[in-house]
Design a protein that fits this description.
The chain is α/β, with parallel strands linked by helices. The protein has two domains: 220 residues, Rossmann fold (3-Layer(aba) Sandwich), CATH 3.40.50.11720; 188 residues, Rossmann fold. The strands form two sheets. It has a seven-stranded parallel sheet with strand order 3-2-1-4-5-6-7, with helices on both faces. A seven-stranded parallel sheet has the order 10-11-9-8-12-13-14. β4, α5 and β5 form a beta-alpha-beta unit. α1 crosses α7. The chain is globular and about 65 Å long. It starts with a helix and ends with a helix. The model has no long low-confidence stretch (mean pLDDT 94).
Length: 429
């Protein structure tokens, strides 16, 4: 890969080694709010609790979002190749919880080890995978080098590369270019992102446009009926506005807009679904500080007097969204980059996003072109006017919801293409 690249990786490894105590301390610190960070720490040093059959499919999904994105692919692969061991790694305990909820004991789960050669060697010598599929854009220099030395092909799946991310990777070209050249294939969501990978150093013949696996979302049977049952607790005729996967600053902004919105939309219910469980208590405090009548999902059924319903649970996004009239996708009113707008669209819900949606730019553009999604402002006064417009216009919301379901249906198929691609690298029939 060249002397300059080797030197860059050596320097990276030395820096990572020096910072390792801080990374471990950070786990312990985060464990104050989520004890899961303090459990199974030995796995992060490559000590595995399982020894799956060799030549299995290894899927790496960083946290909750990537795990949910990987779920249709993993389940489709298991259905087609039930005798192949499937290993799923994550880096966060919330991701680990999602793996357990989605797959139970049908997969082997462990935490991804730190990106240092001794830990990776221990990990790979025990695991002996036949293929690594990395969801989205989680690239580590030593991991890819270790896989290359063991002839383990690595596929980057459901890959996306925003313009902002591309600029960041380009600043570290001595690390980025050899990483990309070690990849067997990059299955990108769209041609624009694919071209950014090529410009960063990916050989063009190793790029394939497969679309987003997130369009292959599975809508559980009876989900709409369960959503109606949940609505009946709150009052079936009430308008419900949801903030899905909210981040710090977003829940508070919606809470500040609640009273003026409720003055125009009587009995409005605000449903807050924080992205991270560590924020559940923080959001509950924000509700109380504004004198609003809040209710936590963990407290049982809510009554019609509830003004703000706090979803302090995990793994219930589709159920909660099915009970809504209007969904604002979180991470987009602040400079986080937004979250997946496909789930509310697939449920037939009118969907809004803020201006900061660069993580899902192509999906947002597609939904906008078909009038299935609209962008709103992060300015509070303008946002109030826009939310009021969509809450008051029942026909507009219905048209958006119908358009969203059609866009999702028209773009399905990425999962099947990824299963075929993976089977080819594993030499399965």
């Amino acid at each position: 890969m060249g002397g300059r690249s080797l030197v860059a990786r050596i320097l990276y490894t030395l820096l990572f080694t020096l910072l390792l105590p801080l990374f471990v301390a950070r786990l312990w610190w985060r464990g104050r709010r989520n004890p899961g960070y303090r459990r199974r720490i030995s796995e992060r040093f490559g000590r595995l609790p399982h020894a799956p059959r060799p030549n299995g499919l290894w899927v790496h999904a960083v946290s909750v979002g990537e795990t949910l994105a990987a779920a249709p692919f993993v389940k489709a692969f298991q259905q087609r190749h039930p005798d192949v061991a499937v290993i799923v790694t994550t880096t966060t305990p919330t991701g680990s919880e999602q793996v357990q909820r989605l797959f139970g004991h049908s997969v082997f789960h462990m935490y991804m080890p730190y990106d240092l050669p001794p830990f990776l060697a221990r990990f790979l010598n025990t695991l002996k995978p036949g293929l690594l599929v990395v969801m989205e854009t989680e690239l580590w220099p030593n991991l890819l080098a270790a896989c290359e030395s063991r002839d383990i092909p690595v596929v980057l799946a459901n890959a996306r590369m925003s313009e902002k991310s591309a600029r960041g990777y380009d600043r570290f070209a001595a690390l980025t270019r050899p990483m990309l050249q070690r990849l067997a294939m990059v299955a990108v969501q769209n041609p624009v992102d694919g071209e950014r990978f090529v410009q960063l150093g990916l050989p063009s013949e190793r790029m394939e446009v497969t679309g987003s696996v997130k369009y292959d979302v599975t809508i559980p049977a009876g989900i709409h009926e369960r959503g109606l049952a949940l609505r009946s607790q709150w009052g079936a005729e009430r308008k419900v506005l949801a903030l899905a996967s909210g981040h710090a600053g977003e829940d508070e902004q919606l809470l500040d807009l609640y009273r003026p919105l409720a003055a125009q939309i009587p009995h409005l219910l605000l449903l807050l679904i924080p992205r991270h469980p560590e924020r559940f208590d923080e959001v509950a405090v924000a509700v109380r500080s504004r004198g609003l009548k809040g209710h936590r999902r963990s407290s049982g059924d809510a009554g019609s007097e509830t003004q703000v319903y706090l979803a302090d649970s995990m793994g219930e996004m589709l159920l909660l969204l099915s009970a809504c009239d209007l969904v604002l996708v979180g991470g987009s009113l602040v400079a986080h980059g937004g979250h997946n707008p496909i789930e509310p669209a697939a449920l037939g819900k009118a969907t809004l996003t803020g201006p900061h949606h660069f993580n899902f730019a192509a999906i947002v553009d597609s939904l906008q072109q078909h009038k299935a999604l609209a962008q709103v402002s992060d300015d509070p006064d303008t946002l109030y006017e826009q939310l009021l417009q969509y809450l008051q216009d029942d026909d507009l919301r219905q048209r958006m919801g119908e358009a969203g379901m059609k866009v999702v249906e028209d773009n399905r198929g990425a999962v099947g293409r990824l299963v075929e691609l993976s089977a080819g690298y594993l030499r399965l029939s």
